Amino acid sequence: MGYRGRMDLALQGSLLDLTDEMTLRDVGTGLRRAELGNGAWVDVRPGWLAAGDDLFTSLLRDVPWHAERRQMYDSVVAVPRLTRFYGADERLPHPMLAIARDALSAHYATELGEPFATAGLCLYRDGHDSVAWHGDRVGRSSSHDTMVAILSLGSARVLALRPRDGVGALPSGVKSLRFPLAHGDLVVMGGSCQRRCDHAIPKTAEPVGPRISVQFRVAGVR
Ligand SMILES: O=C(O)CCC(=O)C(=O)O
Question: E-assigned strands of the chain?
Answer without folding.
Answer: 23-24, 32-37, 40-45, 49-50, 66-72, 75-86, 118-124, 131-134, 148-154, 157-163, 177-181, 186-191, 197-201, 211-217
